[in-house]
Amino acid sequence: MATYGDEPIPETRDTLIEAALPNVVFDGWSKAALEAACEDTGIDAQTAAMAFPRGGVDMALAFHDMMDRRLAEDLAGVDLSAMRIRERVTFCVKRRLELVSEHKDAVRRGASLLALPPYAGESTKALWSTADVIWSACGDRSDDYNWYTKRAILSSVYSATVLYWLGDESEGSADTWAFLDRRIENVMQFEKLKGQVKSNPLARMAFAPLSHALSFVKPPHARAAKPGDGPLDGAQPAEG
After folding, report:
1. DSSP secondary-structure letter at 224?
2. pLDDT tens digit string along 10-45?
3. Closest by Cα among 63, 44, 46, 41 to 6
4. CA-CA distance, 99 to 74, in Å (whole number)?
5. Alpha helix stretches (DSSP H) within the chain
6. Which of 37, 107, 188, 203 is the S-S candidate for 19 at Cβ 3.0 to 4.6 Å?
7. Cα 236 vs. chain centroid, distance in angstroms?
8. Distances from the Cα of 217 to the Cα of 41, 148, 238, angstroms
9. What is the pLDDT of residues 60-111, one digit of tens each?
């Protein structure tokens, strides 16, 4: 078994997750599901334990990560440039849910497990990762605090949409997509408000100290913006 140091290669995790999915419906993200996956794949228990030291919770997180990677690969082949910002974000969120549409029970089991208090931090990190994949695919070039606010807001939108989707029995998830449209509209209204504040001289003066403080906030991998570049390549941060 090929490894990186003491850790199995990522493909090993993906293989075990794929094999475990049919059993997660009955056993949840659990030791039983992992043992069944080992039997189906021929991967030994020691390697499986190295891949998922905490068992079910690590499996649920690995499933989420696997689908985020698939989303990134999928979106890399899609030209989003002709879409408005809200259309880009909506398209990406819908695509993320479509990728797991055949594994709704696995998502439900994972959401229930990761909602437990001990895993709150990791659950938030997983949602943030999804939001980051989406904003990156949408062409986000934010190099200030907006990098964080965009991902925080989208994390909330995505989380709420997933919870709605899990209980949605409408044909083609039509109710979920309508719910998502409403949440995105709320975000766009917030962006409009930010734009109005920036364009108002009195508001700019009032918020000058805060703006100055926020100017020092940079994303983890900030890069120098090119002349003429906005928060999104070829798009404005707010729409009508």
Report:
1. P
2. 889 999 999 999 999 999 999 999 999 999 999 999
3. 46
4. 10
5. 10-27, 31-41, 45-51, 56-76, 85-99, 104-114, 120-137, 146-166, 174-199, 201-206, 208-214
6. 37
7. 22
8. 47, 9, 21
9. 999 999 999 999 999 999 999 999 989 999 999 999 999 999 999 999 999 9
